[in-house]
Amino acid sequence: xxxxxxxxxxxxxxxxxxxxxxxxxxxxxxxxxxxxxxxxxxxxxxxxxxxxxxxxxxxxxxxxxxxxxxxxxxxxxxxxxxxxxxxxxxxxxxxxxxxxxxxxxxxxxxxxxxxxxxxxxxxxxxxxxxxxxxxxxxxxxxxxxxxxxxxxxxxxxxxxxxxxxxxxxxxxxxxxxxxxxxxxxxxxxxxxxxxxxxxxxxxxxxxxxxxxxxxxxxxxxxxxxxxxxxxxxxxxxxxxxxxxxxxxxxxxxxxxxxxxxxxxxxxxxxxxxxxxxxxxxxxxxxxxxxx
Length: 291
Fold this sequence. Notes:
Elements: H1 2-64, E1 79-84, H2 94-109, E2 116-121, H3 123-131, E3 136-140, H4 149-164, E4 170-180, E5 183-192, H5 215-290
């Protein structure tokens, strides 16, 4: 019986240490989430302004049709998917949810790997596809908790350039959209060709403006930058959802550890009481034998 008591005490002590670790990780994730939500709010202000400027400049093209390759829908020969996951685990179902959705989409929409290109942001996604024999054309690991545009500039710029060079004919970003600290939603957003702009959002001006350089030159620079900024927005949104998932997972782990400690404490007390009762019984029996 003493050995059993010692074993329970060791398990209680071990579980308490684990709960302390998960509790600390929960607080760290909560701090990261707060910063990331603020980062996202700032970007949304920027994104709204860029969208407004872009819509105003191409309003006529949205109505009459455009010759700009960033707006033209081509025959689909190959599709590119940017899949955003985390680099590590301990984030609950954050990675499994998006990877399951993407895998199902690839099976439903494509007959072979020749029809699509995978661009992986995050080690979990890259390793997932490689383990299943799916080629990952490009991958990016080790993003910071609040990634700057400079961190992703190269691969995002390449993605847009490859579309312009017709290496693929449409580009989607697959990620977990942050709703709140407890909820995220899988999103698959079409980034290229640009198709989410609405001519009805354009501002009606009573004055005409002269553009320098000409309008086509401005659009040739603006539209790729618009697409890049929207991809970047998805990345920081996904990072926010990742921090929220990490916080929720660590909170659940901490709560489970506390429940285990309570159960073990009850088990320890019962075993200790049984040991005391047995010792008393043995003492009484010994005393009775002497009589």
